[in-house]
Amino acid sequence: MRILVIEDDLDAAAYVVKGLRESGHLVDHAPDGEAGLNNALGGSYDVLVVDRMLPHMDGLTVIETLREQGDVTPILILSALAEVDDRVKGLKAGGDDYLTKPFAFSELLARIEALVRRQNPGQVKTKLNVDDLEVDLLARTVTRDGQTIDLQPREFLLLEYLMKHAGQVVTRTMLLENVWEYHFDPQTNVIDVHISRLRAKIDKNFEKPLLHTIRGAGYSLRAVS
């Protein structure tokens, strides 16, 4: 996805942009309302993430202006304003969802993905494939070369995340936030243990390994010829 983040808090923006890029998305950042509006009007984005309190032009004005010009890009509003009236104003201005600060990155990412699914319902995938490995998200089954592979719930979540980011390098931080919902590093070997168990199940009895360790970076699920 191509995402525009309109946020004047540089630390918050850096956190969001880094996380989205690590999740495989193309991300632009605008530090104020005017720049954000110009970027939004001049680019083709799948989602906009807009802070409410922005210099030069506030977030609600940015959203209202976009809607007045016929822009229907899904918009997630970020704001420290958490009262019901604040959320209602944001949604009435044209926002599609509203997330209050502070927030967990995993929730931000889930909300962005949900907005895109609602915008493009025909693009929702229920089966994921990498080479001869298939995950059925509805039946919660895993097969490789036609053979059923039994996974524990956490192993399934881990494989699902790796499949959704197939071909990309998935970092330890990404796995901790999105599979274990840790927003800190507990300094345990939990990821190593689960990766080892998953690799034994999806790779051990097959000719071609799919789950690769990228030294110093993380892991990648991909077929290597």
CATH topological fold name of the largest domain: Rossmann fold
Indicate the overall shape: elongated
Distance between the termini: 27 Å
CATH C-level class of the largest domain is: Alpha Beta
Helical segment count: 8
In round numbers, the mean pLDDT is 90
Q: What's the gyration radius in Å? A: 20 Å
Overall number of strands:
11
Structural class: alpha/beta
**How many domains, as an integer?**
2
Percent helix range? 25-40%
Order of helices and strands: EHEHEHEHEHEEEEHHHEE
Strand content: 15-25%
Biggest sheet, spatial arrangement of strands: 2-1-3-4-5
The CATH architecture designation of the largest domain is 3-Layer(aba) Sandwich
Biggest β-sheet: count, sense, barrel?
A: 5 strands, parallel
CATH superfamily of the largest domain: Response regulator
Which spans of ≥5 residues are poorly predicted at pLDDT below 50? none
Give an account of the 3D structure.
This protein has eight helices and eleven strands. With 225 residues, it is α/β, with parallel strands linked by helices. The protein folds into two domains: 2-122, 3-Layer(aba) Sandwich (Rossmann fold); 127-221, Winged helix-like DNA-binding domain superfamily/Winged helix DNA-binding domain (Arc Repressor Mutant, subunit A, Orthogonal Bundle), CATH 1.10.10. The strands form three sheets. It has a five-stranded parallel beta sheet with strand order 2-1-3-4-5, with helices on both faces. Strands 6-7-8-9 form a four-stranded antiparallel beta sheet, with helices on one face. Strands 10-11 form a two-stranded antiparallel ribbon. Strand 4 (75-79), helix 4 and strand 5 (97-100) form a beta-alpha-beta unit. Helix 2 packs parallel to helix 3 and helix 6 crosses helix 8 (190-202). The longest helix has 15 residues, at 105-119. It starts with a strand and ends with a strand.
